[in-house]
Amino acid sequence: MSTQNTLRPFINIGPGHTIKKNLEAMGWTQEDLAAMMDISVKQLSQIVNNKTRITIETARLLAAVFETSAEFWVNLDTRYRINKDEDSTRETSAQRKARIRKYMPVNEIIKKGWFISEATADGYEGLYSEIWQTTPDDQSMYDHVKDRYCARQNRENEEYTARYTYTWSKIARIKSQGFSVPDYSREKLEQISRQLYSYTYMEDGVTRVLRELNTAGVRFLVLSHLSKTYLDGACFWEGDNPVIVYTARYDRIDNFWFTLAHEIAHVLLHLPRFKDKSFLDDLKADENSTEEQEADAVAEKYLKADQIISSAKPYAGYLSASRLQTISDKLEIGKAVIVGILQHHGMVDYRKLNAYKKPVTDLIPSDFIVG
After folding, report:
1. What is the tens place of the pLDDT at every residue in 295-350?
2. How far apart are CA 33 and CA 71, in angstroms?
3. What's the CATH class of domain 15-97?
4. Fewest CB atoms within 10 A around its CB: which of 50, 164, 266, 288?
């Protein structure tokens, strides 16, 4: 026959419990014990309910009545008080950490190396203060949080998403300040947008376009998404310059080009009217605003989606690698972008030609990557 040890939770038993057990064994009442100890029933009740410490004098009286040592009662009370204080400290620490974690996934932020902090209650609150430049008790910036940015997201069931997303956008703003660029030139950015498709065809197109963006006064950085944010990219105005952020949530070259095109469209079309907000995009979500529909349409225009679709129509459903190469050379557009657009429009199965959709982070210069 086998035996199994069962783990039981620790119960912090105070001296009052032991007094009650002794009274029960002796058949006495609390009034009897109070009379024997020459103290009031109210005083004894405080002791039995562990609301007052057992003094040396009280310990001697209990020892005399129950035929124990005074040290027994002093030690019992001391151990109870120590454990109670530790429980209270742990509870307070847990409460402080939980309060901050409602607004930001602290351990994840620390793990990403964005900020240096300890995984303690003080560390949690210190990180919160560093990010928001206020005390941990001030959560006013999260009031009506969804009104503070323009989000394309279809996850409406978690409050955490909105809070974590806003925290991410604040961190993105902080990190963008470390990138130095010249004055913003809308004219240069428009020129880049008109030629964006051609960069996708170049072997070093990713590096080239990012350098050109900097020349145009656009800050670009890679900042990975936080859990429950579902972000592909973002753009916002910081100081006198627009900022474009890529999360590499889907680390694929086609995702990079479409996200970049989408955010450039926002910068040119919408940011001038929304300088106090951020556009935060989950590109797998449905287009849920006029601005998002416009950005999608313009992004496809930048990448010549109509020409891609027209060129591939004769091969719909059976586009071979050689035909893909022919279209790519003819339009001077990268094969990954062609595959991505055709898959999005249902002309190529999502299981086909994915070998061309290679990782993009290896192609992005390290000085653009925050982590």
Report:
1. 999 999 999 999 999 998 998 778 899 999 999 999 999 999 999 999 999 888 88
2. 19
3. mainly alpha
4. 288
Residues 312 and 304 sit within 8 Å (Cβ to Cβ) = no
How many CB atoms are located within 10 Å of the residue 216 CB? 24
* 239 phi and psi angles, rounded to 5 deg: 70, -125
User: In 100-232, which ranges are E strands?
Assistant: 150-152, 219-222
Q: Is 293 left (phi over 0), alpha (psi -120 to 50) or beta?
A: alpha
Of all helices (H) and strands (E), which one includes residue 237? strand 233-238
Nearest 5°: the CA angle 284, 333, 330 is 140
Domains of the chain: which residue ranges? Answer: 15-97, 106-136, 147-303
CB of 129 within 8 A of CB of 135?
A: yes
Number of Cβ atoms within 10 Å of the Cβ of 328: 21
Amino acid at residue number 308: I
Indicate the pLDDT class of residue 89, thresholds 50, 70 and 90: low
